[in-house]
Every structure is written in structure tokens, then in C-alpha cells.
Amino acid sequence: MADALQPGAVFAGHRVDRLIGSGGMGQVYLAEEPESGRRVALKLLPAEFTGDVRFRARFERESRLAASLSHPHVVPVHGTGDEDGTLWMSLGFVDGPDLRSVIAERGRLHPGDAALIVSQVAGGLDAAAAEGLVHRDVKPGNVFVGAADGRPHAYLGDFGLSKATDSQSGLTGTGMFLGTIHYAAPEQIQAEPVDSTVDVYALGAVLHKALTGEVPFPRNRDVDVAMAHITEPPPRPSESVDDIPAAFDEVVARAMAKQPGDRFASAGEMGHAALAAAEAAGPPPEWRAPGGASAPGEADAPTAA
User: Fold this and answer.
1) Distance between CA atoms of 174 and 140, rounded to whole angstroms?
2) Is the separation of the CB atoms in 237 and 211 below 8 Å?
3) How many domains is the chain partitioned into structurally?
4) CA distances from 86 to 1, 45, 82, 200, 296 (A)
5) What is the full DSSP assignment across 51-76?
6) Is residue 286, in this structure, part of any structural domain at all?
7) Predicted model pTM
8) Does residue 165 contact residue 134 with C-beta atoms inside 8 Å?
């Protein structure tokens, strides 16, 4: 869909309020379901995905699986469909910023907060894995942060663009992989078969970003980032920031191991390890709720390889 919808327009039974995000994965609108009055994030996918027959078939099948997920740390998928040739998704609207914005505002997070957010996202990933879903695009831009009882409460979004574990590789029919280069596992970059361990790898990269404020392999070119994921050892957060407990080095190293079999067996196992590593840093201060609202998937558009 080339032209943005105007406020007040009705699309697939949703009344549009305003455009709140636009990028490589389409347009995202704040909208309202007329019957329920519920506010949602309405996402319209771009034409290159709509025209990919394989992608359409997988999207329809796997978005139904995503809609069945019910977890306190997963942005819910309310519905999906095809409206005049445009694929769309209706997602829960999170009244809070994404983790990418939080890190940009604060520079980096207290180790206790970073570990808690990662452990919460890990719970959502384990729930998805139990249903046979691999997210494939775990990144700060897909993690949304609210507050509860003075601590952060994280939600993982964009499960409707996830991948069933019985799919062959990380590629779409058009030769693009769905993922973000700074958080993509080596096998995902190389279009090899993927399973839930690619999400463990990405979550390790997210943990490094939250702890240090830097992506694991900062390079000027995407191709150099890709080669670093494939060939270079995982970074050590404690070498970037003095007050990060050294125990996090092992957590990141295991999560971002080059071979899937060398990683944590599950995201939840990694989350528990991160919480244990954070104990040496002491308790974090009360979480100050960041300002602003975000829509699922509006930032950090996936890179096409």
C-alpha cells in the first residue's frame, strides 16, 4: 500500500487514528476496533511481501499460530487478513516506548533491569517455542517497555512475522531473510535451517546492547557485521563498561555461540542465567517509566540480505 491512510479512514473494519510508524516492514497505525472500542496497532505489510506467494501462505498459517499465543510478555495478535490485496495485522497497542528508545535515552540500563527485561522476553519466546514458532527478529525495536510495581514490564512484539520450526531456512521466496543484521545468528545470515536457538542468539545480542548501549559488532557496513557474526567471538560486555559483572560475559558468550548446539537450550534458561549474573550488581533503582508510546515493529526495519 503506497499511500498512507488518513485519520478517520476505515480499513478492514478498523477506524484509523494516525500513522505511528513506517519502515521496511510496512506502515503501522493507531486504530480503533469500532465494535469493541479497543485501541490497536494496525500494521499493513508492504507490497513486496504481499506479492510473494510463499510468504503469503506462511504468513496466513503462522499468524494464526501467533494469535493463539497468550503470555503476559507477548504483544497479542488480535487478527490478520487480506484487504484488497494488502496483508494486515491487528496487534495490541503498547502505551510505552520500545527498548531501542529506552536505551537511546539512558545510554545503557542497570544490569538488574537489563536482566529482568531479557528474562521476561525469554518467557514469551519459550511460550512461542512450545507452539512451534520461531520469532526470527528479536531486537530492541520489537521489545516494548512499560512499568509495574516500580520495575520494568517488557512485551515482545511482531510474532505475526515469525516462522514455524518446520520451515526450511531464513529466506523468503524473494531471497530476503526476515531479521535484523545486528541481532541475526550465523545460520540465519547464511540461509541455513533455523530453530528456536536463533532467538536465543538474538536475545544475547539484545542483552549486550542493553548492558553497554552498543550492538555486539559495530561496523560501518552490513556485510562486515554479517561476517563478524559468522567468524568473530562474541563480545565481552565487562570489557566495554567497568561496572558490568563479569558473569555477564559467559551469559552473552553462550547465548551467542556460533554453533546452535553450544547455546542455552532455551531462552528461559538464558533468562535465568542473566538474572543470576545481575545479582553481583546489586538492586537497581526504582524503574522510571519512560515517556512516549510505540507500535509493534515500527523501528529497526529488518535488513534484506
Assistant:
1) 26
2) yes
3) 2
4) 7, 7, 5, 32, 18
5) T-HHHHHHHHHHHHHHHT---TTB--
6) no
7) 0.85
8) yes
Domain span at residue 215 reads 99-281
Residue 222 a catalytic site member: no
In contact, 66 and 127? CB cutoff 8 Å: no
* CB contact at 8 A, 55 and 161: no
Identity of residue 27: Q
238 exposed, middle or buried (CB, 10 Å; 0-12, 13-18, 19+)? Answer: middle
Scan for cell 524473494, then name that residue. 174
Element (H, E) at 275: helix 267-278
Phi, psi (rounded to 5 degrees) for 19: -80, 130
Q: In the block, which residue shows the cell 501467533?
A: 66
Set 52, 98, 137, 249: catalytic member: 137
* Count, residues in the chain: 305
Q: State the amino acid at position 193 in one-letter form.
A: P
**Residue 22 carries which side chain, given as an amino acid letter?**
S
pLDDT tens digits in sequence order for the chain, 305 residues long: 557 899 999 999 999 999 988 776 678 999 998 788 899 999 898 877 777 787 777 777 767 777 888 899 998 888 888 898 888 989 888 878 999 999 999 999 999 999 999 999 999 999 999 988 899 999 999 999 988 888 999 999 877 555 544 444 444 444 455 568 999 999 999 989 999 999 999 999 999 999 999 999 999 999 999 999 999 999 999 999 989 999 999 999 999 999 999 999 999 999 999 999 999 999 999 998 665 445 444 444 433 22
- Boundary residue ending a domain (70, 92, 114): 92
Q: Are 159 and 274 in the same domain?
A: yes
